[in-house]
Amino acid sequence: MKKSIAIDMDQVLADFYSKLCVTYNENFGTNFTDEEFLLTTQRDLPREDAKKLFALLNEPGYFRDLKVLDEDAIVVIRELQEHYEIYITTAAMDVPGSFTAKYDWLMEYLPFIKTQNIVFCGNKAVIHTDYLIDDSPRQLKSFKGTGILYSMPYNRSEEGFIRVNNWKEIKQYFIKQLEIV
């Protein structure tokens, strides 16, 4: 039986923060670069601004035109699928208006993933795969399998997880796991 890998969507597959940076700058009068924005937190927004940002993210189609984060991701996932059961898991419950756009994005870029293997959830503790690749330490802490932290500037200080910097490293890690077995 194949081992299973759950893969987060935003900031692992899809470049959410680049679009969010543009949205943030346009709506809040800031001039963040993508790199600067990756180091900030939107939790510090005044309540009214946070509500406005949440409403913008919930607009139909907001997530539809995100770029692929790493050009190697699609090829690596296709290759890994030969040896592992692949699931895409996204915390879409955090932004309920994103469901259709995220689904359409996944169908465009990953049409080879079975639709039953796409999971819209909130807390990924409900995911029972062998591995989870995610940029969120919070999600990895509640996950019961092996957590793999996809490096981002905002999670650099996190420890206690296997860390990968790109999709080439992900491929190397999982190919090595096959050799161990």
UniProtKB/TrEMBL annotation:
InterPro entries: 5'(3')-deoxyribonucleotidase, HAD-like_sf, HAD_sf. Pfam families: NT5C (PF06941). It comes from the Bacteria. Belongs to the 5'(3')-deoxyribonucleotidase family. PANTHER family: 5'(3')-DEOXYRIBONUCLEOTIDASE. This is 5'-3'-deoxyribonucleotidase. It comes from Solibacillus kalamii.
